[in-house]
């Protein structure tokens, strides 16, 4: 699990789109068990809600 905090969901969405356009999918496919299908983004309102 990775937790990050962003100014807005829109900024994060832009960043994630940029990462996928620049090879993140290829990295995840070869790194994660189940490949890119094992990648999931969960957007929370507050970091403290992570358990």
Describe this structure in words.
The protein is mostly helical. 41% of the residues lie in helices and 0% in strands. The protein has helices at residues 9-21, 24-31. It is flat and about 30 Å long. The relative contact order is 0.15. The mean pLDDT is 83.
Write the layout of secondary structure elements.
Layout: H1 9-21, H2 24-31
Shape: flat
Q: Roughly what percent helix? A: 40-55%
What value does the average pLDDT take?
83
Q: Topology as H/E string? A: HH
From the alpha-carbon coordinates, what is the Rg to the nearest angstrom?
12 Å
Number of structural units classed as domains: 1
Estimate the strand proportion.
under 5%
Q: In whole angstroms, how far apart are the ends?
A: 11 Å
Count of beta strands: 0
How does the helix and strand content classify structurally?
mainly alpha
Which blocks of ≥5 consecutive residues have pLDDT under 50? none
- Number of helices, where a helix is a run of at least 4 consecutive DSSP H or I residues: 2
What is the makeup of the main sheet?
A: none
List keywords for this structure.
single chain, 51 residues, mainly alpha, 2 helices, 41% helix, 0% strand, flat
């Amino acid at each position: 699990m990775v937790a990050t905090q962003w100014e807005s969901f829109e900024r994060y969405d832009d960043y994630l789109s940029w990462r996928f356009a620049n090879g993140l999918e290829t990295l995840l496919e070869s790194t994660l068990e189940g490949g890119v299908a094992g990648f999931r983004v969960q957007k929370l309102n507050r970091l403290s809600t992570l358990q």
